[in-house]
Amino acid sequence: MLRNPIHLRLEKLESWQHVTFMACLCERMYPNYWAFCQQTGFADAQIYRRILDLVWETLTVKEAKVNFDSQLEKLEEAIPNAEDYDLYGVYPAIDACVALSELLHSRLSGETLEHAIGVSDASITTVAMLEMTQSGREMSDDELKDNPAVEEEWDIQWEIFRLLAACEERDLELIKGLRSDLREAGISNIGIKFER
Q1: For a tag on the chain, would you pick the N or C end, based on fewer CB atoms within 10 A?
Q2: Comparing C-alpha atoms, which of 170, 176, 190 is closest to residue 91?
Q3: Residue 195 DSSP label
Q4: Contact 46, 75 (CB under 8 A)
């Protein structure tokens, strides 16, 4: 998928920064999953919400203990199968689950860099696929690079990266601020708005 210098820069971050970066991107993909569940009655979107909230909690609460194995099992049961739906929304919903699954795998393995790149890829894939679907054709990587929606997604990823990279040590205020800003905005990477 689309390569971006951000993937090289992520190497400079520590694992808590990788995890926060992933949680931010999952937060921006959650409305896609939520909207799909609303439309189809497929699953309770709260499953995704609760798992993601537990990850945020481990970033901000020292004593937080989470069984990520069982969270991963719950998530795997709540991933839709594209073949069961004749609805475009199934794809962004699956991408959101792929991203959250990467995040959970990073918590289980302790390897965060490759998973952070995986989440970055999942989010950009959602945007690129929608752009190609709307234009009714495949686009080359060069075309996608210059696509305004793809550019905007990279800009937001860079913005989150820069805020994290500026921290010397784990900054609880920044982590909480990112979480609440993204939750308040409730807008996904493809512009789907979460309605409370």
Answers
A1: C
A2: 190
A3: P
A4: no
